[in-house]
Amino acid sequence: MITLSTVHANDSSIDTILTLPERTGSLAIARACRETALAFVHESSYWGKAELAMWLMGPYAQLTQYVSNSARRHGTDSPRPVPLLREIDARMVERVVRSARTEVIETMKQTADAEGGASFAFTMMSAGFVVRCEDEGHVPGWVPTTDARRLADRVLSLLAADYLARTSDYENELSVCRHCGAIDFDAGIRDRGICHRHGSGTFAPRSRTPTMPYLPEGA
What's the whole-model pTM score? Predict the structure, then answer.
């Protein structure tokens, strides 16, 4: 059986792969990973090629840069760049985004259970999609790598980095609305099983205004 001690962020038996740059905190990385992943889940229904490219080249690329920079410093092969989307048919982009969103939502439902969450994190670690890090204050954390090629795995790698740093949030607060798949971290919503947009009695869709986050300067 996979236990949380196997994959916990503070487990000293797991090697620290890299040290984060100055003024970049491990918890700041976890927060940015969650915000970036949730931006995908909540906004990608309205995305086309341009919006997906912005997400990949913007917040996603920022969060995977630390492993890229570490690889260059140690003389290892540079990761493959995120592919351009110019030559991809718009309808294919729509299908890929829709499929990835569905997979992410279904996977997050499993992480609400301790064993399911640990299995998810272990899978991400084994695939090399997340690695352990440490900031200048010696606070351990996790960062996503550039190894994930499928869009769903890229989103899930962000959530895995956050899960490993803040496991209790997923066990006690994570909720996935059974109506729309909205992901929230709210114990009250978790108990009801539906988000505020449905619980109020009047469904109000999320704003289509892009809110894709960017990595904060420090912790």
Answer: 0.81
